[in-house]
Write a structure and sequence with these properties.
The structure is a homodimer. Chain A has about 130 residues and is α+β, with helices and mostly antiparallel strands. Chain A is built from 4 helices and 6 strands. A 6-stranded antiparallel β-sheet of chain A has the order 2-3-4-5-1-6, covered by helices on one side. In chain A, helix 2 packs antiparallel against helix 3. The longest helix of chain A has 15 residues. Chains A and B meet through strand 1, strand 2, strand 3, strand 4 and strand 5 of A and strand 1, strand 2, strand 3, strand 4 and strand 5 of B.
Chain lengths: ~130, ~130
């Protein structure tokens, strides 16, 4: 194995998406959440490796899809009509836009706010 | 089910951690990565629900631990001596500090940079 080289900057993007005013029934349906997250991964052009979903009592769902390009996750709070989504993509082949649009539609979100955080090492850390 | 109420602000914190200058062998060892991430979840005070790990060819590991309080994930790039960690916590009972310290030690990271992003709805979205 050759000596490790500093990663490119950024190495990837971490999209954090807040979905508000969602369909409360959708947020509490683990099967719908799983179908939506898997469809979102596909819409982004991601290669799905594995996935885990969990239904909480009395309400709420968590799910993660491991993709070759990192991961997607969703956590839902039906009591707040809210879902937190994150999509961490490395490489340049993925498109987060259709994934977010699909999840917004699937969960009936009436508000969407997003931020994309660059991942990787800062200049000072790259020299470390 | 009563009408959904807007979530508290913030509903949780998403800790994004960049670990640089890591032990390359550790980054490529799925068993060590799994042990470290599970130990980090425990150190944070989290309740582990499920976990998935994957070893890539030729190198690199991805892993996610679903916790009752959301999730932890790690993605490693041995070729860059780099690991990207995220820890999404909701509620006030979790402490990210010991989890980050444990992962830093387990992966032999020589540089650590972090940010904590508040999750939940913005004021405008809360009224939506």
């Amino acid at each position: 194995m050759s000596a490790p080289q500093p990663p490119p900057t950024p190495l990837g993007w971490h999209h954090l998406v807040e979905l508000g005013g969602c369909d409360v029934a959708a947020l509490d349906d683990v099967h719908r959440i799983e179908a939506a997250l898997r469809a979102a991964a596909k819409a982004a052009g991601a290669t799905v490796i594995d996935a885990r979903f969990h239904k909480f009592a009395p309400q709420g769902v968590s799910g993660v899809v491991l993709i070759a390009e990192s991961h997607l996750s969703v956590h839902t709070w039906p009591e707040h009509a809210y879902a937190a989504v994150d999509l961490f993509t490395c490489g340049v082949t993925l498109d987060a836009e259709p994934a977010v649009a699909l999840l917004q539609a699937a969960l009936g979100a009436t508000t969407v706010s997003r931020q994309a955080i660059p991942r990787g090492l800062t200049e000072s850390a790259r020299g470390g």
